């Protein structure tokens, strides 16, 4: 049976170099890598992957934990994670918690039991103490979220400035009575998107009416129901900033059922730029997150931890874009 040492001898390199070519080819100079690969091919060497994994206690599998697999924003990030994982010979195990924190605890047992090499977590709902303990002992990356005071590698956008940009656009169109349908305030992203709304209103000396702020659930139905409440007011809003696109679409459905024209009678801005937002009627003005890039970067940060590489910083903030379409009037851009 051909051994790794035989490959190393033929290629005139160390066995450690052969191992790096097999496990982390991007870390080896191209000339050396090609020489090793030729030796592998000439000798028809077949590495015993299972034995190597058992010996090193590695699985070449990472766990991705999402609150709701039906969320198309999450799917875009997962696509970026899987692409980067595949390039590095890793498989992705997907865990859907259905927004139940108890399910999250059950999934992280896979990491504790060494059934995966690391974890990318899409929300930080578990107890702070348990999350800190997990991150001190295992490779973990947080994506789309962050936790103040904890040095957990995280990838997100600036939800505050992004929301401020969205609301400022509505103000620039002449709206002063602007409502906000938030996500659940137990999430950091919901709080930050509200802060952006608040900052834009205060910066323009506009009063924030507490009745104009309604807490939704990031679902189409909650956007629809909260909009019906807003329309029942004696002085309803002329514009809505919804904390995600699904709620914004629910808003538009409710407005249409009450005989309002969007954007002539009501301007609407969403958040996320999900795939359906550009073909919805009317096409939705929204904040676009670089979801694929967020997934790629999250996977790279996780690989750095798995490989023991030092990291320059813990929090990475990516740029978002305001995509102007038909739902709030104005010139369409992308």
What portion of residues belong to β-strands?
A: 5-15%
Order of helices and strands: HHHHEHEHEHEEHEHEHEHEEHEE
Q: How is the quaternary structure best described? A: single chain
User: Got a strand count?
Assistant: 12
Major sheet, described briefly? Answer: 6 strands, parallel
State the shape. elongated
Instruction: Tell me the number of helical segments per DSSP (H or I, 4 or more residues long).
Output: 12
Label the structural class: alpha/beta
Describe this structure in words.
It is a single chain. The strands form three sheets. The protein has a six-stranded parallel sheet with strand order 2-1-3-4-5-11, with helices on both faces. A four-stranded parallel sheet has the order 7-6-8-9, sandwiched between helices. The mean pLDDT is 88. By secondary structure, it is an alpha/beta fold. The protein contains twelve helices and twelve strands. Strand 3 (118-121), helix 7 (128-137) and strand 4 (140-143) form a beta-alpha-beta unit.
Which structural traits does this protein have?
15% strand, 334 residues, 6-stranded parallel beta sheet
Layout of secondary structure:
Elements: H1 4-11, H2 15-23, H3 30-43, H4 49-56, E1 61-66, H5 72-87, E2 91-96, H6 101-112, E3 118-121, H7 128-137, E4 140-143, E5 154-157, H8 159-172, E6 178-182, H9 188-203, E7 213-215, H10 220-231, E8 239-242, H11 245-257, E9 267-269, E10 286-288, H12 291-306, E11 315-318, E12 321-323
Parallel strand pairs: 1-2, 1-3, 3-4, 4-5, 5-11, 6-7, 6-8, 8-9
Antiparallel strand pairs: 10-12
Helix pairs in contact: 1-2, 1-3, 5-12, 8-9, 10-11
